[in-house]
Amino acid sequence: MARAAAATTAIRTLRPQSSSTATGRGRAAVTVAQSRQVDLEISAALHREFHGLLPDELIRGFVREAMTDLRGSINREALPEMAARLARARLTALAQPRATPAFTVRLPLP
Question: The CATH number of 40-95 is which of 1.25.10, 1.10.8, 3.40.50, 2.30.30?
Fold first, then answer.
């Protein structure tokens, strides 16, 4: 009888899980939804900057890559701004014309 009472007391002291935690959703699901929204907002802003220079899918890919690269290494609140800056820097480097040599060297064939 004492054992049953102790087990009941132990069960009561446990903190009940919320339904969102028990199902594996909750904070992670909100973070994913927010991440997608931020991804779309950054992509739209960069699309306006690089319209005609780079394809839309490439811009979205660079935004997703920047968010993935920065996630976990900076403050969550700073992630959207830093991801936009990183994606913009990478896209700018890609959009700049490649330097071409001023002259061509022709080597004689043996």
Answer: 1.10.8
